[in-house]
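Last lecture ended with a question: if I hand you only a sequence, what can you say about the shape of the protein? Today we answer it with a concrete record. The protein is DUF4136 domain-containing protein. Below, first the input exactly as provided, then the predicted structure, then a couple of comments.
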Amino acid sequence: MTVTLFRAAAFGAALALAGCASNAPETRVTRFHLGQPIATAQISVEPRDPKARSSLEFGNYAGAVSAELAQHGFVITPGLARSELIAIIDITRGTREALAERSPVSVGIGGGSFGGNVGVSGGISFPLGRPRSREIVATELAVQIKRRSEGTVIWEGRALTEAQAGSPAADPAATARRLAAALFKDFPGESGRTVTIK
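The predicted structure:
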């Protein structure tokens, strides 16, 4: 009897987890690169705005991006090391309406654009204050990989997700991991195409 109850409980837990996974927010990802293999090397992860280096938010995203880069063979160096490659991180978080009001921004490689009404920001963020429980929070992670010696961007991408304010899916640390995983899935990804990742 106990074994039967245990199996039933385990099955119920598995169904619950499957339900949670299926309800995970979607992430829209767009990437640009030169269409050539990207040789892995030492890389440092830095914020677009140097003043953000000591912030908890940057720490969350730097950790998530570093973990993804390491899985693809890059060797992460301390932020002040002079690695040849740099991964520059920019985070934008705010209400869906605030992000939708931004103008599209053209980005570096090939003059491409991220399209829609969301582009790579120059460090813009929208303070949430105390979001209302029904408010939708949008978070965007943009990353550029560039050569330090010449400043050439060799890969860039952005990932955008939305979640209801106050929900577990809107948790900043969980959002950082979700966005980084989506952004670097199948790295370097198809250049110029927007894909939706669940």
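Comments.
1. The mean pLDDT is 76.
2. The longest strand covers residues 136-147.
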